[in-house]
């Protein structure tokens, strides 16, 4: 049973991406060539698919950009040495910037986190700008050991993330906000 609390994030479930062993497509984007191992499946992302993912039978990813060019989450894909320090610095920055709802999920590899900032209906261009701004502010405090999504420098089909693992830590409409 897929036990991760994904209700904390608003995930696009009208389609999903499944990882294949071979290259599925090749994309030319902004003078670069990208090879894609994920194949888009135009079916609803169901609990049974999520269970197969958590059992390790398949690798499933979800899109961050919906069909109307709206983004619900800004995501930091952290792959560094100290996830506790990253979480601490990131939560301080996000609180300071006025974001009160964010969740970090563990991944299958150690010290790898997906930190979802729950932004709500945001236009794609605004999401690109916001992601870059937050990443630059965070990089002034920490060595850059993350990628941020959505990202305008990669094709739209690459703005996907594997389904999250267990919850690392979460922040929900903090009670401390009334003291500011």
Q: What attributes characterize this protein structure?
A:
four-stranded antiparallel β-sheet, five-stranded antiparallel β-sheet, 3 helices, 11 strands, 180 residues, DNA primase, PRIM domain
Strand-and-helix sequence, N→C?
Answer: EEEEHEEHEEHEEE
Spatial order of strands in the largest sheet? 9-6-8-7-11
CATH class descriptor name: Alpha Beta
CATH topology (level 3) name: DNA primase, PRIM domain
Number of domains: 1
> How much of the sequence is in beta strands?
35-45%
Helical amount: 10-25%
pLDDT averaged residue by residue: 90
Largest sheet entry? 5 strands, antiparallel
Structural class: alpha+beta
Give the full name of the CATH homologous superfamily: HP0184-like
Shape descriptor reads globular
The number of E-state strands comes to 11
Report low-confidence residues grouped into runs of 5 or more: 175-180
Measured on Cα atoms, how large is the radius of gyration? 16 Å
The N- to C-terminal Cα distance equals 41 Å
Would you summarize the structure shown here?
This protein is of the alpha+beta class and 180 residues long. It contains three helices and eleven strands.
Structure description:
- The protein is α+β, with helices and mostly antiparallel strands.
- The chain has a single domain, classed as HP0184-like (DNA primase, PRIM domain), CATH 3.90.920.
- Helix content is 22%, strand content 35%.
- The protein has three helices and eleven strands; from the N terminus they run ββββαββαββαβββ.
- It has a five-stranded antiparallel beta sheet with strand order 9-6-8-7-11.
- It is globular and about 40 Å long.
- The model is unreliable at 175-180 (pLDDT under 50).
């Amino acid at each position: 049973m897929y036990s991760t609390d994904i209700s904390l994030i608003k995930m696009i479930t009208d389609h999903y991406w499944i990882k294949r062993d071979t290259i599925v497509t090749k994309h030319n984007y902004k003078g670069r060539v990208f090879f894609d191992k994920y194949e888009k499946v135009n079916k609803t992302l169901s609990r049974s698919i999520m269970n197969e993912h958590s059992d390790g039978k398949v690798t499933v990813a979800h899109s961050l950009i919906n069909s109307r060019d709206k983004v619900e989450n800004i995501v930091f894909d952290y792959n560094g040495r100290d996830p506790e320090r990253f979480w601490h610095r990131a939560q301080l920055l996000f609180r300071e910037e006025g974001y009160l709802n964010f969740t970090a999920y563990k991944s299958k590899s150690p010290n790898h986190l997906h930190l979802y900032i729950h932004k709500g209906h945001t236009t794609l261009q605004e999401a690109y700008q916001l992601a870059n701004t937050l990443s630059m502010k965070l990089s002034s405090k920490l060595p850059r050991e993350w990628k941020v999504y959505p990202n305008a420098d990669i094709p739209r089909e690459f703005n996907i993330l594997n389904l999250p693992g267990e919850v690392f830590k979460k922040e929900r409409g903090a009670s401390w906000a009334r003291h500011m």
